[in-house]
Design a protein that fits this description.
32% of the residues lie in helices and 15% in strands. The protein is of the alpha/beta class and 384 residues long. Among the domains are: 63 residues, Chemotaxis Receptor Methyltransferase Cher, domain 1, CATH 1.10.155; 205 residues, 3-Layer(aba) Sandwich (Rossmann fold). The structure holds S-adenosylmethionine (SAM).
C-alpha cells in the first residue's frame, strides 16, 4: 500500500487479521486519523510507539478501541424486509412445526450493532408465537463494539431507525420514552447481548443455532477471513438451520456447503438437512455466479433505508401457509406478470423509475442487484 510507513502497515495488517477490518487505499485517510486520535488519547507522539502498544498485553483492548473508530454501525429495524417476511411466514412456522414442544428456537444476531436487528427478530417471533409466546425464542446478539452494545441494551430508538416499523408494531412492542421509544420488556427479555469479536473462538452457546443473521458485517473482510467465518457459522448451525446475509452479499465462490433457498423473495442459506420429510420444502436454488464487478465473494452494497424494497412474494414458490396468508390479504394486485421479476410492474417506492423494466431475477427494488444485466448495481467492496 503506497503512502503508509511500516508501523502504519503493521497496524493495518493487525486490524485485518484480528478484527477482519481490511482497509484499502481509499480508507488510508480514515486509518491515519483514527491512529492519530488513539495516539492522542494515549499521549503518544510516534506511530511506532503506538504500534508497540498494540503488540503489548494491552494490545487487544487498544485494537478494539481503534477498530471502534473505523467500523460502520449503520442499521435500522426490519432492514431487508423480505428476510423478516420469510421468517414470519415460512421459517418460524416451519421450525415450530418441526420441533417438539418446549424446544426453544435459537437465533444469533452476529454483528448486531445498536440492536435494531435482534429486536426485529424478537418482534417477528412474538408476531408469530404471540405474547406470551407459545414457543420460546432465544436470541443471542453480539458485536465487537461496546458502545454499540450499550445502546442496544438501552433499547431506546427514534427517527430513521424506526422507519420500517409499522404503527401497529410501534404501539404493540414499544413504549414512549424520553428521546424516543423504548422496546418493551417482553421483547427485550428474548435477547442476550454479549461482546464478541467474530474472529475469536465462538462461545460454547454457539452450537445448534437455528438462525444466524450476519448482515452487513463482512463489508471490509478479506476473502479468506469471510470463508473461515462462514465455515464456522456452518458448524454452529443446527441441521436445517438458516444463515441470512445482507441483501447484496453472496457466498458464491467462497463456500458451497449451504443450499441457497428462496423464500417469498428472500434469499437464505440452509445447512443440509436430514429432516426434510415433515415440512413443505422451500424452493432450493442453484447459486448464481456474481456479476463481473463483484470482487469480493462477500459483497455488500452501501444501501440506504429501504434495503430491498417491498417486493411482493412469488406465489408459486410459497409454502401453503404463506400462500394462504397472501390470498387472505387479497394477493398482490401490482405484481409483475413476469415470472423472473418480483417487482410491481410500475415500480413504486424503493424501485427503479416507474415503468422501467427490470431484467433481474432478484428483488432489486432498492437500486442494487447481483445480476450484471440489471442497471442498478451492487457496489462490491472488501479486499482480497
Ligand atoms: C453495518 S453494522 C450491521 C448491523 C446489522 N447486522 C444490520 O445489518 O443492520 C456492522 C456491525 O458489525 C460489527 N463488526 C464488524 N467487525 C466485527 C467483528 N470482527 N466482530 C464482531 N462484530 C463486528 C460492527 O461493530 C458493526 O456494529
Amino acid at each position: 500500500m503506497s503512502g503508509l510507513t511500516r508501523p502504519f502497515l503493521e497496524i493495518r495488517n493487525r486490524l485485518a487479521a484480528r478484527c477482519g477490518l481490511y482497509l484499502d487505499e481509499s480508507r488510508v485517510p480514515q486509518l491515519t486519523k483514527a491512529v492519530a486520535d488513539r495516539m492522542a488519547a494515549r499521549q503518544l507522539s510516534h506511530v511506532s510507539d503506538y504500534d508497540q502498544l498494540l503488540r503489548s498485553e494491552e494490545g487487544a483492548e487498544e485494537l478494539r478501541l481503534l477498530a471502534e473508530l473505523l467500523v460502520n454501525h449503520e442499521t435500522f429495524f426490519f432492514r431487508n424486509r423480505p428476510h423478516f417476511r420469510a421468517l414470519r411466514e415460512s421459517i418460524l412456522p416451519e421450525l415450530h412445526q418441526r420441533y417438539p414442544a418446549g424446544r426453544p428456537i435459537r437465533c444469533w444476531s452476529a454483528g448486531c450493532s445498536t440492536g435494531e436487528e435482534p429486536y426485529s427478530l424478537a418482534i417477528t417471533a412474538l408476531e408469530v408465537f404471540g405474547m406470551p409466546p407459545v414457543r420460546t425464542t432465544k436470541i443471542c446478539a453480539t458485536d465487537i463494539s461496546l458502545p454499540a452494545l450499550q445502546r442496544a441494551t438501552a433499547g431506546v430508538y427514534r427517527g430513521r431507525s424506526l422507519t420500517n416499523v409499522t404503527p401497529t408494531q410501534l404501539a404493540t412492542y414499544f413504549q414512549p420514552a424520553e428521546g424516543g421509544y423504548r422496546v418493551r420488556p417482553e421483547v427485550q427479555s428474548l435477547i442476550t447481548f454479549q461482546q464478541l469479536n467474530l474472529l475469536d473462538p465462538f462461545p460454547a452457546w454457539a452450537k445448534g443455532i437455528d438462525l444466524i443473521f450476519c448482515q452487513n458485517v463482512t463489508i471490509y473482510f478479506q476473502l479468506a477471513t469471510s470463508r473461515e467465518l462462514i465455515s464456522r457459522f456452518y458448524d454452529a448451525l443446527a441441521d436445517g438451520g438458516y444463515l441470512f446475509l445482507g441483501f447484496s452479499e453472496t457466498l458464491w465462490g467462497i463456500f458451497d456447503r449451504f443450499e441457497t433457498v428462496e423464500l417469498d423473495g428472500a434469499f437464505a442459506y440452509r445447512k443440509n438437512v436430514q429432516h426434510s420429510a415433515a415440512r413443505p420444502a422451500p424452493k432450493v436454488k442453484k447459486p448464481e455466479p456474481p456479476p463481473p464487478h463483484v470482487r469480493s465473494a462477500v459483497t455488500i452494497s452501501r444501501r440506504t433505508i429501504d434495503d430491498a424494497g417491498e417486493s411482493p412474494p412469488t406465489v408459486s414458490t410459497q409454502s401453503g401457509a404463506a400462500r394462504d396468508a397472501v390470498q387472505r390479504r387479497g394477493g398482490y394486485p401490482g405484481a409483475s406478470a413476469s415470472a423472473a421479476c418480483r417487482r410491481p410492474a410500475a415500480a413504486g417506492a424503493g424501485g427503479a423509475a416507474a415503468g422501467s423494466a427490470c431484467r433481474c431475477r432478484d428483488p432489486c427494488g432498492a437500486g442494487s442487484c447481483r445480476l450484471a444485466s440489471c442497471r442498478s448495481r451492487a457496489v462490491g467492496s472488501g479486499g482480497r
